[in-house]
Amino acid sequence: MSNIENCTPQQLQRSFSLMKSLYNTNPAPSHAQRVDVLKQLKQNILHNEHEIYDAMKRDYGYRSEFDTLIADVLPSVAGINYAIKNLKKWMKPSKRHAGLMLAPSSVTVHYQPLGVVGVITPWNFPFYLALGPAAQALAAGNRVMIKMSEFTPNANAALRKVTKGLEEHIQIVEGEAEVGAAFSALPFDHLIFTGSSTVGKLVAKSAADNLTPITLELGGKSPTIIDKDIDINIAVDAVIVGKSVNSGQICVAPDYVFVPKQREREFINAFIQRYTEYHLNSEDSNTQTHIVSDRQYSRLMGFLEDAKAQGATIDAVKEIESDHGRRVYPHLISNLSSDMKILQEEIFGSILPILTYDDIEEVITYINDRPRPLALYIMSKNDQLINSFVTRTHSGGVAVNDTAMHVAADDAPFGGVGNSGMGHYHGYEGFLTFSKAKTVLRSSSWIPKNRFILKNRDFVFKTLRSLLLK
Predict the structure, then answer these.
(1) Which residues constitute the catalytic centre (predicted)?
(2) Residue 460: pLDDT band by 50, 70, 90 thresholds?
(3) 257 vs 409: which has the higher pLDDT
(4) Order of strands, sheet of 331-334, starting from the edge strand that comes earlier in the sequence
(5) At 372, is the pLDDT very low, low, confident or very high (cuts 50, 70, 90)?
(6) Per-residue CA distances from 287 to 42, 244, 282, 339, 461 (Å)
């Protein structure tokens, strides 16, 4: 069997049937079998590392090797290593308290592979967002089918090499929108989608026809809050990290920043000065990943034109140069009005709106009045303020004095809430997402408990009532 390039819906159905059949031949792979698959996958990644860098450069026009290393290669390998290290513990049935009603029976919970897991991958991090959930599904004992983005053909070809020799465990499929729709309509045992909220809703509707359980990793407008007393350089450096990786084409990038009104210009000037120092005056000045496509580039230019037409102030780290491809350095937008597109849509690029506040309660109200974001970032040393945002706002995750890095926490779940997604993966929680937690009650074969209950219903009723209804 081989991975399917330019897949048709009919080929897709045959591939799914084959993966289902393979699962049925071995529905409970051993710890050793799962580890062997994960180790081979890891070795394939390492063997094809430089091809991965080259593929991403070709798909983007230019993509920094640092971005591919930090956001695609390293987390893929780290996730596999973490699963291998902890898999024996995760697979072990857990003992549970049976309680007086069930005495002297025992209760355990077994973690059973679901079957065939579908993974729908976007274009921004095609390796990690394919292999991250795939590795966890494989660790849980499943077979995996991955639908790659049609916008990253070179990355898709590299991923086929990464999964070579593992085709009985992972199938890579490619195709346009028709194939994507057919993929989400397959009766998977679990389906995970990473992408926009708009497409996520369509995927969820399609999966609902089969009652397929689904994990949605979406996005949204993730806010950053700058406290009045924080060192501005610490705050700026954290925002630059989250906004510069992949040129902001990342679901957890800081989408907009709240700064105290009196510190607005200080923040803008510090951002431009420090970004220039890190990315333009460094020994390697070719660090800026391009925008992935003409369509995405035009969308960002539309944000800038709309803001400018409505009177916004635009401070660019560096002006756009038409002879440098789709390279867009950060543009900080201030003097905003609520009608501007950059305050209504997820930016997903290197544009950063700056909002100001007098009272921190304004910020909490603003965030809570809008769809729940995938991430929220707080730049502060005030524990009380930090706790206010953690407890009084909803988001997929929170980072304090940092941005985006919480995604790299292998031992913690990652996922959205509300409009930014549902469900989660990573770590033990990811293993559980792709497993069926099956309760097993075991009663003794030599103690006639049921016979006693049937013959002494009155006594059992009165005894249990007096002991348990307190």
Answers:
(1) 217, 251
(2) confident
(3) 257
(4) 313-316, 331-334, 351-357, 256-260, 223-226, 375-379, 397-400
(5) very high
(6) 27, 9, 9, 33, 74
**Is there a contact between 414 and 425 (Cβ–Cβ < 8 Å)?**
yes
Q: Determine the average pLDDT of the residues in 346-362.
A: 97
CA 335 to chain centre: 32
- pLDDT-derived band at 444, boundaries 50, 70, 90: confident
Please tell me the predicted confidence (pLDDT) of residue 234.
97
Give the single-character DSSP code of 189: S
The 10 Å CB-count burial string (b at 16+, else e) for 402-415 is: bbbebbeebeebbb
For 352, the 3-state DSSP assignment is strand
Question: In this model, does residue 196 exceed pLDDT 70?
Answer: yes
Pairing of strands 170-173, 190-194: unpaired
Phi, psi of 94 (to 5 degrees): -100, 135
Residue with the two structure tokens 């497409």 = 199
Q: In Å, how far from its chain's centre is CA 342?
A: 23
93-151 residue pLDDT tens: 999 998 877 788 899 999 999 999 999 999 999 999 999 999 999 999 999 999 999 99
Orientation of helix 31-47 relative to helix 49-60, angle to 10°: 60
Q: Specify the DSSP element, H or E, that contains 465.
A: helix 457-468
Which stretch of DSSP H or E encloses residue 397? strand 397-400
3-state SS assignment for residue 308? helix
pLDDT computed for residue 2 by the predictor: 56
Rounded to the nearest angstrom, the gap between the alpha carbon of residue 36 and the centroid of all alpha carbons in its chain is 25
The tens digit of pLDDT for each residue in 268-291 reads 999 999 999 988 876 555 678 999
What is the spatial distance between Cα 252 and Cα 244, in angstroms, rounded to a whole number?
12
Q: Which amino acid is at 248?
A: G
| Burial class of 248 by CB neighbour count within 10 A (0 to 12, 13 to 18, 19+) | buried
d(CA 55, CA 61): 10
Residues identified as active-site = 217, 251
d(CA 367, CA 438): 39
Query: CA 275 from chain center: how many Å?
Result: 26
Tell me the mean pLDDT in the region 421-436. 96
Containing H/E element for 326? none
- How far CA 193 is from CA of 137, 169, 222, 348, 467, in Å, comes to 14, 19, 19, 17, 48
Is 32 buried (19+), middle (13-18) or exposed (0-12) by CB count in 10 A?
Answer: exposed
> Which domains are delineated in the chain?
9-218+420-437 (3.40.605.10), 223-415 (3.40.309.10)
- For 116, half-sphere exposure in the C-beta direction (CA atoms, 13 angstrom radius) is 23
C-alpha to C-alpha distance for 363 and 369, rounded to whole angstroms: 10
Sheet (strand 106-113) strand order: 94-96, 106-113, 435-442
